[in-house]
Structure formats: structure tokens, C-alpha cells
Automatic annotation (TrEMBL):
It is a single-pass type I membrane protein. GO terms for biological process: response to symbiotic fungus. It is found in: Membrane. The lineage of its organism: Eukaryota, Viridiplantae, Streptophyta, Embryophyta, Tracheophyta. This is Phytocyanin domain-containing protein. Keywords: Copper, Disulfide bond, Electron transport, Glycoprotein, Membrane, Metal-binding, Signal, Transmembrane, Transmembrane helix, Transport. It holds the Pfam family Cu_bind_like. Residues 23-123 form the Phytocyanin domain. GO terms for cellular component: plasma membrane. Its main location: membrane. InterPro entries: Cupredoxin, Phytocyanin-like, Phytocyanin_dom.
Length: 145
């Protein structure tokens, strides 16, 4: 059973380590957040973890970023009750695991321009630290005098 102390240490690591190892993903790489880009292909093979950041880069006023649910993503529907990100350098920190959907709410950029991103955020997992190899157990005969 883990002691309270080792639990505390793990809890502290769980908070500190992600902030050190967090990855910043520039959405679309050098193309940024734009129309007619395959964000599905961009996200493929990438691992997003809690604590990582997405950066949406675009000329201010040309696009925006709405976080939507699965329905909003499928139908390119922007939620009326939330405001989009509009700075042109929008940083989204991934706080929770699960599916996340982002679309552009300008004109028909999502429906026609395919400006939509879906990712799956994985829980933060501490990569296993290689433990020192166990010293070999001696199974040979023991001789006593
Ligand atoms: C998805 O988002 C829309 C717009 O905000 C909302 O009306 C709808 O109820 C949501 N659907 C689910 C399944 O949460
Ligand atoms: Cu747009």
C-alpha cells in the first residue's frame, strides 16, 4: 500500500511534471489556422495530453476559434452562448482528457473550407522511468561449514 507521503510526492509530480514536459502544438504548423487545410491529417499520429497547448495562428479578423461539441463539429454550428477566440494567436491549454472539437465560425470556413479540428486528449501519463535492473538472486547451493 502506498504511504500518504509517497502519494503526496506523486501528486506534486503530477502537477509539476506536465508543466515542464507540456508540448505546444502549432495547429496547422506553418500554415496555421486557415481554410482548405487537412487538420485531420495534421492531428494524425500526434499525441495530445492534458497540460499541452494548442496555438491557433491566423491574421486577426480573418478567422476565429470556437470550441464546440461533436454536433457542432459535424454540422459546423457555432454555439450562441459562447464567444470565440479572436486574437489571431489563441492559446488553448488542454485541461481535460477526452475528445475536443474546434471550428472557425467565420462565414462558411468550417462547412465549405473544412476549417475544423478534432483531437483526443489523453490523460497525463508519467512515462515509466527505467528502474535499475534487479540484482540477480543467487540460487546456487549454500555451503555451511
Ligand atoms: C452541443 O452544442 C450546442 C450548441 O452549444 C447545444 O445546443 C447542444 O445541446 C450541444 N449538444 C450536446 C450533446 O451537448
Ligand atoms: Cu476561418
Amino acid at each position: 500500500m502506498a504511504s500518504a507521503q509517497s502519494f503526496n510526492i506523486l501528486a506534486i509530480l503530477a502537477i509539476l511534471v506536465p508543466s515542464i514536459l507540456a508540448t505546444e502544438f502549432l495547429v496547422g504548423d506553418d500554415k496555421g489556422w486557415t481554410i482548405n487545410f487537412d487538420y485531420q491529417a495534421w492531428a494524425k499520429g500526434k499525441e495530445f495530453h492534458v497540460g499541452d497547448k494548442l496555438v491557433f495562428k491566423y491574421p486577426e479578423g480573418v478567422h476565429n476559434v470556437f470550441k464546440v461539441n461533436g454536433t457542432g463539429f459535424q454540422q459546423c454550428m457555432v454555439p450562441k452562448e459562447t464567444e470565440p477566440l479572436t486574437s489571431g494567436n489563441d492559446v488553448v491549454t488542454l485541461l481535460n482528457p477526452g475528445r475536443k472539437w474546434y471550428i472557425c465560425g467565420v462565414a462558411k470556413h468550417c462547412a465549405v473550407g473544412n476549417q475544423k479540428l478534432i483531437i483526443t486528449v489523453l490523460p497525463y501519463t508519467v512515462s515509466p522511468v527505467p528502474s535499475p535492473a534487479p540484482s540477480p538472486t543467487y540460487y546456487g547451493k549454500r555451503y555451511t561449514a
